[in-house]
Amino acid sequence: MIFITLGTTPFSFDRILKQIDAYMCANNRTEEIVLQCTTSTHQWQHSPIKIVQSLSSREMIQRFRTASHIVTHGGFGTIYSVAQYSPIMPLIISRTSHHHEHVDDHQRYFVQYCKTLVPHKYHRYFISSQSVDKSLSEYLSSTPHQNICNQYLFHGDSKKVCKTIEEFIHQT
């Protein structure tokens, strides 16, 4: 099962959904997709797909634990949850204000910051650029590495993480 979680913001992230759908169809992939999002106008060609606006914490954790692949937006809460509960590395893609996917680029800054904290071989899991099709294809066609997000991003000290993020944002 491929789990896509795009948060609860009222902004569409169809740019990503279209690319995932195209990849799945072009490569004759038959895995079920579970998509959690609140706003989308994309008409899926791939099947099977289950689309839900929200999941309980328990359902979300279960998806994190059992998914073969996880594609997520760059929201802090979701990344923190994936770090805690997923055994595999997710593909983290920031929403952008340029594409009207959020009110500003805070996700882009956060994803860029996260990328600076992990070993180089994990950089491919943190996408803050406009073009994501190659990253999506590479991620969905391979077995994800073991999840190292909790080890490198959070270290169990959320206050330190918030202060470091704030310092990073002021530098950019």
What can you see in these coordinates?
The structure is a single chain. The chain is α/β, with parallel strands linked by helices and 172 residues long. It has one domain: Rossmann fold. Helices cover 42% and strands 13% of the residues. It has seven helices and six strands. The protein has a six-stranded parallel beta sheet with strand order 3-2-1-4-5-6, with helices on both faces. β4 (69-73), α3 and β5 (91-93) form a beta-alpha-beta unit. The termini are far apart. The mean pLDDT is 87.
Instruction: Please tell me the CATH architecture by its name.
Output: 3-Layer(aba) Sandwich
For the sheet with most strands, the description reads: 6 strands, parallel
Instruction: Provide the β-strand percentage band.
Output: 5-15%
Proportion of helical residues? 40-55%
Tally of domains: 1
N-C termini distance: 37 Å
Number of strands: 6
- The third-level CATH topology is Rossmann fold
What order do the helices and strands follow? EHEEHEHEHEHHH
Strand order of the largest sheet: 3-2-1-4-5-6
C-alpha Rg (nearest Å): 15 Å
What is the SS-derived class?
alpha/beta
Question: Which CATH C-level class is it?
Answer: Alpha Beta
In one word, what is the shape? globular
Low-confidence stretches: none
In DSSP terms (H or I, runs of 4 or more residues), the helix count works out at 7
Mean pLDDT: 87
